[in-house]
Amino acid sequence: MHYQISDYQVKPQILQCECLNCCKFQNINNLTIITEDYIQWFNNERISLKIKDLSLVEYRKHLRTFHI
Q1: Bridge partner residues of 54 (DSSP)
Q2: What is the DSSP letter of 48?
Q3: Residues 38 and 26 sit within 8 Å (Cβ to Cβ)
Q4: CA-CA distance, 49 to 28, in Å (whole number)?
Q5: Given this model, what pLDDT does residue 54 score?
Q6: Which of 7, 8, 11, 68 has the fewest CB atoms inside 10 Å of its own CB, making it the most exposed?
Q7: What pLDDT, in 10s, does the model give residues 4-46?
């Protein structure tokens, strides 16, 4: 399966700075696993002070409750 960074909430610059520059990859599969794990963490677990101390996914769910 092919992934594009644009499919996710992570900006490529943040991904590169926080994840890719910190790791050494042994092969493309290792790169894929680490990148997918980081994107999952960024979208689902990382808390942002700018959006009421919620993760991106939690914030979107919160917004949907008010727009229904």
Answers
A1: 48
A2: B
A3: no
A4: 34
A5: 87
A6: 68
A7: 444 456 666 777 777 777 778 888 898 888 888 888 888 888 8
Name the residue ranges covered by the structural domains of the chain. Answer: 9-67
Q: How confident is the model at residue 47 (pLDDT cuts 50, 70, 90)?
A: confident
Considering the entire predicted model, what is its pTM? Answer: 0.64
Q: Which residue, chain included where needed, has tokens 């409750």?
A: 65
Phi, psi of 24 (to 5 degrees): -110, 130
* CA 24 from centroid of its chain's CA atoms: 19
13, 19 contact by CB (below 8 A): no
- Both tokens of residue 53? 């101390």
Amino acid identity of 53?
D
d(CA 57, CA 54): 8
Query: Whole-angstrom Cα distance, residue 2 to residue 23?
Result: 21
